[in-house]
Structure formats: C-alpha cells, structure tokens
C-alpha cells in the first residue's frame, strides 16, 4: 500500500485557564488500489469463460476520514486508462482552499464507453453478490453511498463507511458485450501529532495560565503582572487579550483598547483565530455579568466579532 505525505494543517486547542496544546493534523493519502484494469464479460458469454462480475477488497487504513474510487470503461480486453486520482486529490489538498463542496466535480476522469455497476458491500452481501443471488434468489443489500449503477465513468466519494474492510462488487450489466474497467482507490487519513514547543513558549503559556488564575481570583493587577511576564518570553495573542480584560476590570479603558488591538493583530496570525476570538467574546460577556457597567467592553466585543466574522 503506497502512502503519500501531502499536507500539514495546524490547529490549536485553546485553554483560557492556563495551558494551550498545539497539534499538527497530518493529512495523508494511502493508495489502496493502484490503477487496475479488469475485464468483465457479458452475462451470457460468461457461461463460456470469464466473469461478468468480480470484486475488490478494500482494507480501510486507520484514521480514514474519507475515501474515493474513480473508474472508467473501454472496449476490448486491454487498455488501462490514466485515472490519476491520487495525483489530482493531492493537488487539491495542497491548495489552501483544500476540499470543498465542488471537489468531486473538479476531479477529471476519462470518458467511458460502456456502463458498469459498482456496489459497496459488506462480507455477507459480497457472498450473495458473487453467487448471483439477485438472479436466483432474494438479492443482496448494498450501501447507496459508494455505489454507482449503470455508469460509464465516475469519481465516487465515501465518508460514511470509513472503518474496517469493505468490498466493491463489480458487475457488467450487459448480456452480450464485454467491458474493460479501469479503477483506482485512494483513502485520505488524518491524525493529530503534538507539536514540540520551545522552552520560551512553554514558559509564556505557564505565566499566562497563572495570570488567568489571578483574574478568576479577582486580582487584576497580578493578572496583568503575569501576562507581562508571559509576553517577555513569547508573544501570545490570547495572553494579551487576558491582560486587556484585566485592564477593563480596573477601569483602564484606553489602555485596554490598545492592548486588545495588539492582541487581535497577533491572534489573526496565530493558529485557530476564529476559536480564540470566540473565547475572547465569551470572557467579555462573563465580565459584563460581574460588572454590567464595564466601560469599553461592548465596543471591544464588537471589534472582535468583526474580526471573527
């Protein structure tokens, strides 16, 4: 199974009361089935040799978040087409916009010439499929997501069934004409890896946590002291935001406004700004419950909301 490292996206779990833990979300591609050519005979002709249906076993990798298969059809018993599914997906993920609702429509697949049926099956229904129970008995069940019927070419995305082993049942619905099917299967996986932080950043987060503890204790001067200590070690936007809130509680509206402007500027260039802005707004709302006449709080909250949106 080929594994392709493609893209790293950084997220931060923001913990207001002390320590924040940073993670890298590593997104990788694993090519489960390389481009493969499979000939499917017509139903009646299969009685004289060859198969009109077969299957592919799909062992989904751990941490799969979605997987794709693409296929196309051609005449004759040979002629593998160039699907390039993994390459196309890699290019999309490398783009800053990543995957969107238009991902499938943006993927290219060679035009096919004959229809096939592809069913997403579990083991029990695979046995029914290969035994042709749909002809002789009560048929088989399949998952609609991941199934393509009477289709010449397609790219199919599956994000529901993403664990364990599944099967793609391949069938030529034609009675007489054979078809050559080219197919490729790719899984996308994600896993979190803790980022190793510098000693200065760790000290800054610890000081920041101490500052927030003092804020919760109502000692706003000491909160500012520890926030300043944190900032001397490493410039963290959320620490400045805590300092600004403490300044507001001390009725230092002008100083608080300047601190918040600096905090917002930093946060916009640090991980997960939307999440951090949301937490800042929550903190101001809590402060307003403690001190409803808090001067400047509403104005600062509006500025943060504009940045978040």
| SSE-based structural type | alpha+beta
The sequence of SSEs as H and E is EEEEHHEHHEEEEHHHHHH
Specify the CATH class of the largest domain.
Mainly Beta
What fraction of residues sit in β-strands? 25-35%
Radius of gyration: 29 Å
Cα shape: elongated
Task: Record keyword descriptors for this entry.
2 domains; 38% helix; disordered N terminus; alpha+beta; Serine Threonine Protein Phosphatase 5, Tetratricopeptide repeat; 4-stranded antiparallel β-sheet; Jelly Rolls; 30% strand; 309 residues
Task: Provide the fold topology.
Elements: E1 2-13, E2 21-40, E3 53-59, E4 64-74, H1 85-94, H2 103-106, E5 116-121, H3 123-130, H4 133-136, E6 143-151, E7 153-158, E8 165-171, E9 179-194, H5 199-216, H6 220-233, H7 237-249, H8 253-267, H9 273-290, H10 297-308
Antiparallel strand pairs: 1-2, 2-9, 3-8, 4-7, 4-9, 5-6, 5-8
Task: Explain what you see.
This protein is α+β, with helices and mostly antiparallel strands. It folds into 2 domains: 2-192, Jelly Rolls (Sandwich); 199-308, Tetratricopeptide repeat domain (Serine Threonine Protein Phosphatase 5, Tetratricopeptide repeat), CATH 1.25.40. It is 38% helix and 30% strand. The protein has helices spanning 85-94, 103-106, 123-130, 133-136, 199-216, 220-233, 237-249, 253-267, 273-290, 297-308; strands at residues 2-13, 21-40, 53-59, 64-74, 116-121, 143-151, 153-158, 165-171, 179-194. The strands form 2 sheets. The chain has a 5-stranded antiparallel sheet, with helices on one face. A 4-stranded antiparallel sheet has the order 3-8-5-6. Strand 1 and strand 2 (21-40) form a beta hairpin. Helix 7 (237-249) runs parallel beside helix 9. The chain starts with a strand and ends with a helix. Mean pLDDT is 86; it is low at 3-20.
């Amino acid at each position: 199974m080929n594994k392709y490292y493609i893209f790293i996206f950084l997220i931060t779990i923001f913990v207001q009361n002390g320590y924040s833990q940073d993670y890298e979300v590593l997104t990788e591609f694993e090519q489960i089935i390389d481009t493969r050519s499979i000939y499917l005979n017509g139903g009646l002709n299969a009685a004289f040799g060859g198969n009109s249906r077969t299957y592919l076993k799909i062992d989904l990798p751990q941490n799969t978040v979605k997987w794709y298969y693409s296929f196309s059809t051609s005449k004759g018993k040979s002629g593998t087409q160039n699907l390039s599914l993994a390459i196309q997906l890699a290019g999309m993920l490398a783009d800053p916009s990543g995957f969107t609702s238009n991902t499938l429509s943006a993927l290219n697949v060679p035009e096919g010439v004959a229809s096939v049926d592809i069913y997403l099956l579990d083991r029990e229904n695979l046995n029914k499929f290969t035994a042709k129970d749909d002809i002789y008995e009560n048929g088989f069940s399949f998952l609609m997501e991941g199934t393509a019927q009477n289709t010449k070419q397609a790219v199919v995305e599956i994000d529901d069934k993403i664990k364990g082993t599944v099967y793609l049942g391949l069938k030529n619905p034609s009675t007489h004409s054979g078809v050559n099917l080219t197919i490729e299967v790719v899984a996308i996986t994600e896993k979190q890896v803790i980022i190793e932080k510098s000693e200065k950043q760790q000290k800054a987060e610890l000081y920041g946590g101490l500052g927030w503890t003092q804020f919760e204790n109502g000692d706003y001067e000491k909160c500012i002291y520890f926030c300043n200590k944190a900032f001397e070690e490493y410039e963290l936007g959320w620490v400045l935001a805590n300092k600004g809130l403490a300044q507001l509680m001390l009725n230092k509206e002008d100083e608080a406004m300047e601190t918040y402007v600096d905090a917002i500027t930093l946060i916009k260039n640090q991980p997960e700004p939307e999440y951090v802005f949301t937490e800042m707004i929550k903190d101001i709302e809590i402060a307003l419950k403690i001190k409803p006449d808090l001067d400047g709080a509403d104005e600062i909250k509006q500025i943060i909301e504009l940045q978040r949106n």
